[in-house]
Amino acid sequence: MPVMPERWQIRGDNGASALDAWAGVLAATHIPFDVRATYRTPKAFQGLVTRRRFGDLMLVDCASSPFLGHWALGQPTEQIVGFQLIRKGVELVRERSRKVSLTAGDMILWDGLQPVDVEVVEPFLKRTLIFPRESVMAVCPRLADVKALPPLKQGGATRLLMRYVNALAHELPQLDGPASAAAASAALELLRGAVEPSLPSSRSARRTALQSEVRRYVRTHLQDPALGPESIARAHAMSVRALHALFEESPESVATLVRRERLSRCLEDLEQPNGGSITEIAFRWGFRDAAHFSRVFRREFDMTPSEARHLQQ
Predict the structure, then answer these.
(1) Which of 23, 41, 129, 176 has the most CB atoms within 10 Å of its CB?
(2) What is the pLDDT of residues 74-96, one digit of tens each?
(3) What is the pLDDT of residue 40?
(4) Average pLDDT over the chain, rounded to an integer
(5) How confident is the model at residue 205, as a pLDDT?
(6) Cα separation of 157 and 142, whole Å?
(7) Domains defined for the chain, CATH in brackets
């Protein structure tokens, strides 16, 4: 079943109590700002946030009257990264040496660990796709080499991500759990495409990026029974020996990675009422022998495929 959206609203409240309440809303949905009034802040402050969770991401729509928000080192941090799109109004963002004025159609990437000041100059509406920071670092490992998130280049990848975010707002109410998880994975890949061209390169970063590329390749080719070190190496124009060397310091080998990903997909299908028979599921995800599948499944999850299915009934 689709997850219902969460809503927070400040409606026409007066004075400091309204701004304190708004600070609580922002802390719950974005990052913990110290919220203050400016000469533009109306006596009857209004703010509305709607949040919808899907996979391990969050899509957040936020509208408010003008205010000033400050977050500094020493305050609580959030292990999140936000891709923000301004839909209406004006917002000023000051982060380190960067000062940006955002108006309708502008986009920005922000880090929940970086001190920032924001000022809503005109009543505004923004839409933000919020990612766990560790997920972003997993697909964009070169981010570890920079002190601050880079400005987004206004290219095709960034515009495609913007269109996808807006499409998500319309489609998420109709998506079930598996479809929501797939939508979250697609959003993460689109973010990678928008961010990576702006990042520096180093030998260590290239190695980590190639490992991430191999993992993505594995996840998208699990249904191929021939998927293994030889086919993976061939797809990435390297020798099998070089592929094994790439993962020699990783906690699992390439073959183990393939097996674990296949077993995870099989477990997901076993938990679905319409996932198919156990043999169909095993063959769907690249296993060639049902008996072998049952043995490795039990070794991985300490239960048989039949027991896993019965747990969901």
Answers:
(1) 129
(2) 666 778 999 999 999 999 998 77
(3) 92
(4) 87
(5) 66
(6) 18
(7) 6-198 (2.60.120.10), 203-311 (1.10.10.60)
Residues whose CB is less than 8 angstroms from the CB of residue 264 and which lie 6 or more positions away in sequence, other chains included = none
